[in-house]
Amino acid sequence: MSTPKKRGGYRKIEFSERIKVDPETAAVDLRAFWIFTKSATKAAALLGISRRSFFRCVTHLESLGYTVRRPFEE
Questions:
Q1: Per residue in 10-21, pLDDT tens?
Q2: Contacts 24+ apart (CB under 8 A), 46-52
Q3: Nearest CA to 53 among 62, 65, 41?
Q4: What are the pLDDT digits (tens) for 25-66?
Q5: What is the CA radius of gyration of the chain?
Q6: Which are the contacts of 48, defined by CB distance < 8 A and separation ≥ 6?
Q7: What is the number of helices (H) and of strands (E) in the chain?
């Protein structure tokens, strides 16, 4: 029998590294892309991350105290 492969773990992505180095600029960029594209999926594609990673970044930046969520349009 073969041993199971290890899965998961941390992937070095340019945007996640930017969050570590300069979270304020990353929060501004994330919010700007989200407002500009009007879609989290499209914003994630422009940033080069998955949609799931996009929302993880949003949650992480908000836990640091930055406002990232796109305002609701009425």
A1: 667 788 888 889
A2: 47/15, 48/13, 48/14, 48/15, 49/13, 49/15, 49/16
A3: 41
A4: 999 999 999 999 988 999 999 988 889 989 999 999 999 999
A5: 15
A6: 13, 14, 15
A7: 4, 0
- 3-state helix/strand/coil string of 7-40: CCCCCCCHHHHHHHHCHHHHHHHHHHHHHHHCCH
Q: Are 21 and 30 in contact (CB under 8 A)?
A: no
Q: Are 44 and 50 in contact (CB under 8 A)?
A: yes
Identity of the amino acid at 74:
E
Tokens matching residue 55? 């929302």
Return the sign of the alpha-carbon dihedral for residues 41, 47, 53, 59.
negative
Q: Which two tokens stand for residue 58?
A: 């949003």
